[in-house]
Structures are given as structure tokens and as C-alpha cells.
Amino acid sequence: MDFNDTPEEAAFRQRAQTFLAAHVQPRAGQTESLQKRLSDKEYMLAAKAYQKAKAENGFAGITWPKEQGGQGLAPIFSVIFGQEEGKFDAPAGPFTIGLGMCVPTVIAFATDAQKERHVGPALRGEEIWCQLFSEPSAGSDVAGLKTKAVRDGDDWVINGQKVWTSGAHYSDWGIVLVRTNADKAKHKGLSMFFIDMKSPGIEVRPIHQMSGGSNFNEVYFTDVRVSNSQMLGGEGNGWSVALVTLMNERLAVGGSPGPDYKEIFDWAKTMPGQDGGTLAEDQSFRQKVADWFVRAEGYKLAKFRTMTALSKGQTPGPESSIGKIITANQLQDITHNAMESMDHFGIITDAEYAPSEGVFQQSHMWAAGLRIAGGTDEILKNIIAERILGLPGDVRVDKDVAFKDLPSGR
Amino acid sequence: MNFDFSDDQKYLKEQARKFLSEQSSMAVVRAVLNDEQKSHDAGLWKAIAEMGWLGAAIPEEFGGLGLGELELCVLAEEMGRSLAPVPWASTVYFFAEAIKIAGTEAQKSAILPKLAEGGVIGCVAASEGPGEPRAANLKTIFDGTSVTGMKVPVTDGDCATHALVLAKHQDGTSLVIVDLTGAGVESKAIKTFDPTRSHATLTFTKAPAQLLGEAGDGEALLQRIYDRAAVLLSFEQIGGSQACLDMATDYAKGRYAFSRQIGSFQAIKHKLADMYVALEIARSNAFYGAWALSSDAPELPLAAAAARIAACDAYYLASKENIQTHGGMGFTWEVDCHLYYRRSKLLAVQAGAPSLWKEKLVRRLEMRNAA
Description:
The structure holds 2 protein chains of 2 kinds. Chain A is an alpha+beta fold. In chain A, 40% of the residues lie in helices and 13% in strands. Chain A has 3 domains: 7-91, no CATH class; 129-247, Butyryl-CoA Dehydrogenase, subunit A, domain 2 (Beta Barrel), CATH 2.40.110.10; 261-374, Butyryl-CoA Dehydrogenase, subunit A, domain 3. In chain A, strand 2 (148-152) and strand 3 (155-166) form a beta hairpin. In chain A, helix 9 (283-311) packs antiparallel against helix 10. The longest helix of chain A has 29 residues, at 283-311. Chain B folds into 3 domains: 7-116, Acyl-CoA dehydrogenase/oxidase, N-terminal domain (Butyryl-Coa Dehydrogenase, subunit A, domain 1); 122-216, Butyryl-CoA Dehydrogenase, subunit A, domain 2 (Beta Barrel), CATH 2.40.110.10; 220-370, Butyryl-CoA Dehydrogenase, subunit A, domain 3. Helices cover 54% and strands 15% of the residues of chain B. Chain B is built from 11 helices and 9 strands. In chain B, strands 1, 2, 3, 4, 5, 6 and 7 form a 7-stranded mixed β-sheet that branches. Chain B has a two-stranded antiparallel ribbon with strand order 8-9. In chain B, strand 8 (256-257) and strand 9 form a beta hairpin. In chain B, helix 1 packs parallel to helix 4 and helix 5 (88-102) runs antiparallel to helix 7 (218-254). At the A-B interface, helix 9 and helix 12 of A face helix 7, strand 9, helix 8, helix 9 and helix 11 of B.
């Protein structure tokens, strides 16, 4: 039992560190992130330049086949690069979904000519991809989507609405899951297309989140034409194509999404406690710090177990599936406790007064969304129960019924 | 990255599970549960000794197998899963480890070979009343050659041959070894929440005792012993938690209500998923504890505390929700749920309750940050 890289992994890590040090700034010691310092336009240029540098130096498409311009390496190397990249303020965000989920789907299902056209530009950061699955009435139950495509000669005509689309406003291409046959059962009438996001009839509107910010979009489709040749995986096979997309979701290797036990404990040393001392001296608070530490460490160490499996060339065990349930709930709990421990003062978000410039308040808002995004707590627990523990699926009322005849509520 | 047990260690675990499923069946566990006179299963104890497990982590020069702590961890997990009704934890995690880290050569030679054969059963006699045993609340006294006082409760105190006794000594506390078969020792069995493991009061009247480690170092040494034992206990707790999760999962697949398997209801699924998540957090922390224990890392006190807290949480959750998943059947004597519920509580309060370990953990964090 040890935490050491194999010689090959160590050499790759070293190479990654050298590359990163030459191209991006370390996260530590920075007061403001690159994204905050730059305008949206400048940040996008920086992101594209960084992705280009990754491609030129052999750090793009690490696990992709060499014939697609990838590096043909085992998943452990992708994890190692992610670990190292996480230590830097690298502008990698705009490419996460495209390169992590969309383009692998294109690689799996598109023609050679289409791959030739699309994979290289995506890998070099010249084109950005987004994923258009969720809809207002199809979230956890994404196969219940209603956006429809109707055949018209060599084209299909798409009408409907997608929602929670990250990066739609700056994406060049997207993969979109639509209903091509409402007479078939829910999962059987779907098809997947890839589509030019600049096509006439596509309108992107930002979503005004409860946090006040806008990180996601709604995308409206009004008589949008797409060629039949851009269908991925064949008519009616959209659901199995979508499962390939979702399986390609990158192994979560990043750190925690906000303040963790260390941040709140450091901060508590500067806050008043109940008995004249600091908050960090309060017994009830200290007990919670221990719980937070145990969960944060547990998650970190579970990832080490995943890495071990990958390093040995094995498929990671189910321990990798618990991540977001732990981190999202922990973030909500920590920020909740930080705010309540300030008493009335905890309500202030004004950076002039709020300790740590209001990071706990901001993160407390964000945590509520994190528990929903990319699979709700409840869906993730269903996945654990059904796929890991082998419990039976829920009773299905929609299995052998034409989609058009299903009740859909509001 | 090689954060896992080796293939040999996994093989040992597999063999242990197979062995215990036969030798420590529920019938064996219940025989101890149902018989107040029976402190442990002597046949199982003998069989374990014959397998060499008691000396697994004892060096060969002292009659052991000379394997490491990682091997003990995998055995611990299986002992926990099987609820083995034997004084294994007291003897191996506490007593043997204490002699190994603090005993003189003479003490090691006198005790460890016999222990490896099954002829020595150890126990820890620290508690005298509610709360953490400390100099301020101890009445038992060591006068340099003998010990006088009363300890309660002592896990395995009625079947043990030797005890580690925490006693007031000079200005502080010392840890001493008492031969329980000698003069001045009276043991009396007491009833506890977990009758599958025996408990006693030990009364010492000028009982001959020899110092273990440095005089006056009792509490600190006991803490070092607890740090090691906590990791091993955490594996027992994981084994027990996994048994509960397996049991609840099986039941949820086979039990029908409202004309469906109850495992198809999300209320049950989410409950079992929560148990799974808690168990994975515990397992990952325990792995780190195992690494720290086996490599004598300075991180051991922090790692042990995290392993213990996570394991106590996981076992409590798994044992109570296993009962809940079984419904009314889970509350009967015949169904095994209560055996885990009992054992989970014993393992959580033995060697310091989780709240004490949480404070220890935070103090360690402060020390680490100050360094």
C-alpha cells in the first residue's frame, strides 16, 4: 500500500507539471481568478489559446485513440493531468462538456468524414461544443423530452426548448436529443443529432438563477433545419447514444467546489465564539469540523482508490459514484453553519461587511444548485441502489405506452 | 498510486471469510448470546489460534507469523462481519499491540509466544465510571509492585488471563500488566448491551503488577495503543456494516409489500444508498488508517481518529437502518439484526466514544496546521 506513481505515471506527471508551469498560473496565492479578472471575451480567447497549447503539447484527448488525434493513453493519465491542472488557475472550463462528453459521442457514432471535420478543431480549441438534453419538463426523467424533429426531405425540422445548457451562448456545435416519433414508447422514439449552433431558428437566452447569476442557458428551437446526415446512431436510437454520452462523463478529479473544513476552521479562528473565546474553540463547532474532515478525507481517499484501480488497468469500482452526493451536501452544510455561527451578521452579502467577501453566502446559494445539477441527490441514490446494490427498478408506467398518450402534468 | 490491499492480503481475507462462515456461524454467535455462563466460544478461539491469526502480526522470534498490520486489518474486517464471539479484539488489537510497542524484551518473550498459541487472553481495564478515564477520576492505584482498585466494565474481563490496567501512580498514571490468574484478583461477570462479548468487573487487592512502558506515561501510552486499536476496530466495524447492508439489501429484494419488492420503493433505496455512502467513507478512511498503522507514519493519530469516527457513524447507521428495513421482523429476537445493533454500540464506546475522538482529531488538525 503506497501513494506513489509508477515510473511511467511519474514521468507523465512531471511532463504535465512542466507544461502547466509554462502556460498557466498556480492557483495558490492568487486573490482573483483569471475568469474574474478578464472580460468574458478575453477569458474565451485565453481558454482557446490554452486548449491549443494542450493539443500541441500532447495533453488534449489524453485517452482518445491516436487516429482521432488523441494520445491513446490509459484513463489514469487523464486523472493525473486533471490533478495537476487543478492546482493551476487554468481556463479549461469552456471545454469540459464538449471534450468530455459531446465529441466522444461524435467519435463513437459519426462517419469518418464527419470525424475528420470536427474532432481536430474541437481538440485544438477552435470549436466549442455543448450538450442539449434537459428540457423544462424533462430533467431527471430526460427521456420524457418533447422537443421534436420532423422529417422533411433530406432534412429534419426541429421545434422545442432545451434548458440548463452550459456554454450554449459561446458554443459552435451541440449534440441535441430530440423526439422523432411520438407514437413509440418514451425511450424508443428518440434520435440524436449534432448541430451547428449558429443555425437559423436557434435562440439562446441566459437563465436568471436564484443566486442572481447566469451560468446556464435556455435554447429555443424554431423550425431549425438539420441534415439527416447529422443524425448520430440512427433513427430511434437516441437513448442508447445518450447513454454513451453520459458514460463519458469525466471522472471527477477536481477539488471541492467551495469552502471546505479547512477554510471554515481557519476562518473560525477569527470569529467570536459563545463563551468569550473564538468560534474555533467552541465544542459544538469542533465536533462538526471533525465530521467535515472525515467526509472530505473519505471522498479524497475514495478517489485514490479509484486511481488505484485505473493505475492497475481495472475498471474503477462503484466508490467513484458517491462524489457529488458528498461534496454538494457538505458544501451546503458548511456554509449553512458558517452563516448561522455569525448570528444576525451572517445574512450580509455586501462584500464591504461580509467576512471573506461573502464566500460562504455565495457558496450557500450555489450548493442548492449543485445538489441538483448533473443528477440530483435522489437520482444518484437510485443509481447506487439499482446499479451497485442491485435493487429492482421502480414500477414503470410508461414502458409500453406511446409517448403521445403518456400523462405529462403541467 | 497503490491504495489497496495486495492480492495476497485479499486472498487471506477470502480464506478468513470462508473459515468464519463455518466456524463462527450465527448458531455459534447465538450460543454465546443465549448462555449467560458462556463468556466466549472456546472452540472457535482454539481454531483461530491454530490458524495462526492470534500471532499474525507478532514477529516470528516471538512465536508469531511475522505478517504485518495490513494482514490484521483484513482479518479484523472478517471477524467483524461474522460477529465472532471471542476475545480477539481485546487480545490482539489492544493487549498484543501494547506489548509489541511498549514491552521490554522480557515481557515480550514471556507473553507474546503464549498469546500467539491462544494461551494468553488479554483485556484492557481502564474505565471505572462514566466518562474518559483520566488521572483526575481514577481511584485504582499502582504502588510500584501491586495494584488496588476496581475496574468496570472490562470487555472480556471474565475470560482474560492478563489485563492492562490504567492506574494512578506517583503524580500521574501508569499502565501496568496484571496476571489475572494470580493473587488479589476478583472478576465478576456483568450484563451488557452486547452479550455476545463478555464483560466483567475486575477488583484488585494488592494484586502483583508490573509496569508497561515508562512510569507516569499511562494515559499517553494508552492513547498510542488506542490509536493503533482504533484502526483495527474500524475494520471490524466495516465488516459489520457491510454485513448489515448485505442483509438489508437481500431482504429488500425478497420482501413484498403493496404487491412489489420493497426494494423497488425509493424510500428503501435511498436508505440503503445512504448506508452505502457512509460505508464507503468509512472504508476509505480505514484504508488510510491501515496505511498509517502499517508504515508507522506520523499521520497515525489523525488517520486513526478519522477511521474511527467514520466507522462508528457507518455501523450505527447500517445497524439501525437494517432493523428498520426489516420492519417488525427486525425487532424480533430470532432475526439477527439486533446482534449487529448490539455490537455496533460496543465497538463505538469501547476505546473512547466518537465525540472524544472528534475532539482529538481537531486538536491534531491544529497541531498539524501549527507545524
